[in-house]
Design the sequence.
């Protein structure tokens, strides 16, 4: 089968890219390949559903620019397509004096990123927003919201196929890519696809797809499992909307937080533990080959040496309900052990470079044959339409 563009990966970024390419040039013949039997089963389908404002990201970074632009594009699409969402706002709470510099840095980032409505709150005013939250200072971020990103991604797929005539092939796992002078042949378990250009949005396997023909790729995807708990229904009143701790801006995780979900209920988490399998959603999941691929990457070994104390703390909280409760009680002191039940989990595809850096920004590597999206963690869902448009415009230039 011959196509102008073949996209590998049916998560929200791949679907948004397919949609935006068709919007930019409806005449392009585009196929999207997904190895699972349905779309968005991994990072997108296990997303906590937060519409991010862009407050965390370094001004001028791809994350900041695409999150803020993508936020507006996402809300416009939800309004147009009648997708339920809610802009409920969130608190970022400092519970100790040592967290105050980080909180103040976030406020400065908010201003630089154009989020002028972010408000500083002193301790007594925090309870006006979240009566059961303890803290000495906080930021109220009115832009943050909640949505079902699986519903969003399915809408992208519907528009791409039904309105623009794009093709989606499920249960097509890519096994090889062969480059010729003027096209590539994408080999799958159910057939081959000839394409003038390949777009790799394979998430947890994006590095593996990229390395088929690019042995010089200097990053590896390390899977980090995030485990959630949920508040029992009788205790949902303890959290009105979203409550976050002050994150370490040098580390690409936001810490254990509370999220009211668009379908009801409140979840808390996630932690961040190295998963011993790329799609390792359970503590017992293990794949020897994938385990060794991560461990043998010298960049990840450097990460382990640098952050071993933090890593042990994350594993301890993973196996100890008491430890998990204590981390939650820092923000909401009235939560008790009996107030939480096991929730779901997700696996984050985190790019790690050879020098031991956990890459914080989006990362796209391109060549004559292929565009590789090698790092697109949170806020990629919020930013998906902007990422898709950015990729789309670069790709369109190839066809002009």
Sequence:
């Amino acid at each position: 089968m011959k196509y102008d563009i073949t996209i590998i990966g049916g998560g929200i970024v791949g679907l948004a890219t397919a949609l935006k390419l068709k919007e930019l040039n409806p005449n392009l013949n585009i196929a999207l390949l997904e190895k699972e039997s349905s779309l968005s089963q991994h990072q997108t389908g296990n997303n906590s559903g937060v519409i991010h404002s862009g407050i965390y990201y370094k001004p001028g970074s791809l994350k900041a620019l695409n999150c803020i632009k993508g936020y507006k594009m996402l809300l416009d699409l939800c309004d147009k397509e009648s997708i339920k969402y809610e802009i409920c706002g969130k608190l970022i709470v400092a519970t100790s004096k040592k967290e105050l510099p980080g909180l103040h840095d976030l406020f400065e980032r908010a201003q630089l990123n154009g989020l002028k409505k972010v408000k500083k709150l002193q301790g007594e005013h925090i309870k006006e927003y979240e009566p059961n939250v303890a803290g000495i200072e906080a930021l109220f971020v009115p832009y943050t919201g909640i949505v079902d990103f699986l519903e969003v991604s399915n809408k992208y797929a519907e528009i791409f196929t039904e309105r623009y005539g794009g093709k989606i092939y499920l249960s097509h796992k890519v096994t090889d890519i062969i480059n010729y002078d003027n096209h590539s042949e994408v080999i799958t378990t159910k057939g081959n696809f000839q394409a003038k250009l390949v777009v790799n949005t394979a998430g947890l396997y994006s590095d593996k797809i990229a390395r088929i023909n690019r042995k010089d790729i200097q990053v590896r995807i390390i899977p980090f499992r995030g485990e959630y708990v949920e508040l029992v229904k009788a205790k949902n009143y303890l959290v009105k909307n979203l409550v976050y701790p002050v994150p370490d801006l040098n580390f690409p995780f936001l810490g254990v937080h509370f999220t009211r979900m668009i379908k009801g209920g409140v979840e808390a988490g996630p932690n961040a533990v190295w998963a011993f399998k790329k799609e390792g959603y359970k503590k017992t999941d293990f794949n020897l080959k994938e385990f060794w691929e991560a461990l043998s990457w010298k960049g990840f070994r450097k990460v382990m040496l640098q952050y071993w104390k933090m890593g042990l703390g994350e594993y301890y909280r993973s196996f100890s309900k008491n430890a998990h409760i204590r981390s939650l009680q820092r923000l909401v002191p009235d939560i008790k052990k009996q107030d939480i039940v096991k929730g779901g989990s997700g696996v984050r595809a985190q790019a790690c470079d050879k020098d031991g850096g956990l890459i914080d920004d989006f990362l796209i590597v391109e060549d004559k044959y292929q565009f590789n999206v090698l790092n697109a963690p949170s806020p990629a869902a919020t930013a998906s339409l902007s990422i898709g448009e950015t990729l789309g415009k670069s790709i369109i230039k190839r066809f002009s």
Observations:
- The first strand starts at residue 2 and ends at 8.
- The mean pLDDT is 94.
- The chain is about 35% helix and 25% strand.
- The CA atoms of residues 131 and 238 lie 8 Å apart.
